[in-house]
Automatic annotation (TrEMBL):
Coiled-coil intervals: none
Gene3D superfamilies: D-Amino Acid Oxidase, subunit A, domain 2, FAD/NAD(P)-binding domain, Rieske [2Fe-2S] iron-sulphur domain
Source organism superkingdom: Bacteria
PANTHER family reported in the protein's UniProt record: FAD DEPENDENT OXIDOREDUCTASE DOMAIN-CONTAINING PROTEIN (PTHR13847:SF281), SARCOSINE DEHYDROGENASE-RELATED (PTHR13847)
SUPFAM superfamilies on file: FAD/NAD(P)-binding domain, ISP domain
Protein name: Oxidoreductase
Pfam name, any one: DAO
Amino acid sequence: MNQANLNPRDSKTVSPWQLQPGLNQQQEVVYSGTIYDVVIIGGGIAGLTTALMLQEQGNQCIILEGHNLGFGTTGGTTAHINTFFDTDYHQVEQDFGADGAKTLANSAKESIAIVQSLIEKYQIECDFALKDGVIYSETEQETKSLLKLLEASRRAGVEAVEVRENGIPVPFEFAVNFNDQAEFHPMKYCIGLAKAFQSLGGTIVENAFVRKTTSEEDLQIAHTDRFEIKGKNLVYATHMPPGLTVFDVECFPYRSYVIGVKLKNGDYPKNMAYDMKDPYHYIRTHNIAGQPYLILGGEDHKTAHENPEAAFEALEAYARQYYYVESVDYRWSAQYYVPADGLPFIGKMPGSNDHTFVATGFSGNGMILGTITGKVLRDAILGQANEYLELFSPSRLKPVAGFKDFVAEKVDVGYHFIADRFNTADMESFAELAPDSGEVVNFKGQKIAVYKDPQGQITALSPTCTHAGCIVKFNAVEKSWDCPCHGGRYDLKGQVITGPPVLNLKQINNPGE
Ligand code: FES
């Protein structure tokens, strides 16, 4: 695989979707003088769908993407498009009532219909296929939970039936099939959305990292390092909105791990399948460059809380336990955010003006929720009725006691961080660090994030996350510094790659200077 031809992602591991050519815009055209109807920050499935649906209504929209389209989670999804969610209908019924569960179910069914209609309307070739999606149990306890899920799904209006096969070589007790689930190539789909958006006059600017947003009279202004863009409305489609927000204590960052496996016997599953473990495994097949692959995901854990290497090892061991593995050709991971009450936040940004919107907390259901975001935010911005606005409203968040103190304290930690450059003797104290690895070390009474590259060169950074002051941790698989608090992530030079921080980690030495 020639890395130079891959579309970059917020991770060093490579997903097969990165082989898809990007937009390849030759020339950047930014109309700094234009006042857009809607400025959308983030070029993943949520931002693209929102932009397209608004542009279709005659709004003039611009997408500002900090890197390239699909750089974030959309480029690392496994693109399962389901009528069930990580938060099961039984739980939703308990917390949001029977009507809440029905509304959630409608959002999933409508999302699939939206994807299908956009594919048809704009002739997007993205390997879309309707598939059976089978959830199966392996223990008595899991069977009890699955039965509850089955009954609650039916009450919510989702078609689900007991089946005798789970379609994969994993023994099971009980299995339920959800008809008409779907899958596609997420980046082919998103590039298709982007081209449709452009064909309607929409503007996309890549490598436009928004450092801050401000308001001036009735306008929202997005500031990048090179220019600022004004709009009547502003949408954060970046998972977590930047800066300190109530979402910092209401959404929790997780990473999921995926392998792309070539099988010896060619016995690739025809359906999608899910077990009832926590975290659960999820499986499907996709043809990549003419070759079928088993796409197996799971081993999720909170960002920067466990060892990513161990997650990949466990996933590979699981694959070898049940399948005739010829080779594991892809390994990748991606980040998602789990909302505290199980439902996404899509709508007006709490504590902001009436023209700032947000979509976050998608859990592992980003394709469905990223799609319905388009319709919800389109209607919210245009002042139209929408069945999902209330259920997904971010204003259901209650102010969190002590939040302001928490933030102030954390910011203070960052503010007081001071470190000098290192001299040669200091550098030698890092000699024991293995090449191509990193660690947060105590050095002269201060914590330092140290990375040694394969040639032995040291980069030292402040480990204090610029968002709210937590200490980052080295991710040996993705070669990044990940924050355990809200999932902020930085590259080896300390530059922000994802999450709520907008400022880079402070570099405290630069050997050779
Ligand atoms: Fe919030 Fe690091 S402190 S992402």
